Amino acid sequence: IFFRFCEHKMFIPRHNVLRSGFLPGVHAMRWISKYPTPTARLSSLRQLMDQQQKTGEVIRVMEVHSGLSALIAENARGDGGQAFHAVWSSSLTSSSIKGKPDIETVDTSARIGVVEDVLEVCSLPMIYDGDTGGHPEVFHFTVRSLERLGVSACIIEDKTGLKQNSLFGTDRKQVLEDIDTFCKKIEAGKKAQVTDDFMVIARMESLIAGWGQEEALKRAKACIAAGVDGIMIHSKEKQPDEILEFLQAYNQFEVKVPVVAVPTSYNSITEDELFKAGVSIVIYANQLLRASYHPMLDVAQSILTHGRSKEADGKLMPVKQILTLIDDNTSKE
User: DSSP assignment of 42-77, as one string?
Assistant: First the structure.
């Protein structure tokens, strides 16, 4: 298992030997990863969570939708050396890359294909967006498939009927599932797993659907009683106020599980502020895919406008760099 214990005592996969200098510029590097076994990858998210009180920081998770985006997420570093600790396989982005709406049109088998593409080139633990999870009998098999691949966790939302993306809020009809029915789904998922390391996380949609704090807290308490491993609280508001209000009340629970936040719309709040409020995991749920759209459109329009690609050269990665970006195991040393 390729792990080291770093100075702040958080488990980080030891990987990514970066070869630089074969091309000029900061982005001239080759990515070579050593990958954990599915068993080692599966357990690594729990190891990160076990170390959180010592590290004093959230687990930072980035959305990926392809092998290339996974390489970017794993190798990206902030100015202070910050890194992503895990990746998120999003239903929204898995649908979008296929040109399909986010209404569960892409089935689990197709989604698993994206997961395999990511796991083949990335050593970070993965959290999977399970949408509603389907019927309990179906969710049983989804858990089995994900766990076998080495996925660490699956998040399912407490809605029913035709899926509508949560960021529509009350602009689209958002139907919450009967809480007892939803809890049976959680129980089915927990019974299906083979290891103690796999996690089922319940996504609370009450604030999205306009049902308010009391309903969100009631549902969170029921999900914890059903054996869920974490609670994700969701909001489409531009400010984090209702998330912080939920966390303040949630922190008074006698029995709690880790909390997941997805600050897509309320992105003025920092990771440190969320951690201090009680959040364990922060997911950046769709930013890499959203970042890719405008540059691609800009290049396409430039080629159409000028009848050639020369004007777009400054916006493009050199051909040689894309050819040598990923190690092909043929270099001689």
Answer: HHHHHHHHHTHHHH-SPEEEEEE-SHHHHHHHHH--
Work out the number of other CB atoms within 10 angstroms of the CB of residue 272: 11
Cβ atoms < 10 Å from Cβ of 127:
27
- Rounded to two decimals, the pTM is 0.85
Q: Which residues are catalytic?
A: 102
Q: Please, what's the b/e burial string for 182-198 (b: 16 or more CB within 10 A of its CB; e: otherwise)?
A: bbebbbbbbebbeeebb
pLDDT value at position 113? 94
Closest by Cα among 323, 298, 291 to 73 = 291
Strand pairing category for 29-32 and 86-89: unpaired
SS3 13: strand
Cβ burial, residue 217 (10 Å; 0-12/13-18/19+): buried
> In this structure, are residues 127 and 61 in contact, taking their beta carbons and an 8 Å threshold?
yes
pLDDT means per 10 residues, the chain with 333 residues, are: 32 36 36 75 96 91 96 95 97 89 83 95 96 94 97 96 52 82 98 97 96 97 98 96 98 98 97 98 97 96 98 92 76 57
Q: Which two tokens stand for residue 205?
A: 């949609």
Residues 6 or more apart in contact with residue 115 via CB below 8 angstroms: 89, 126, 128, 146, 149, 151
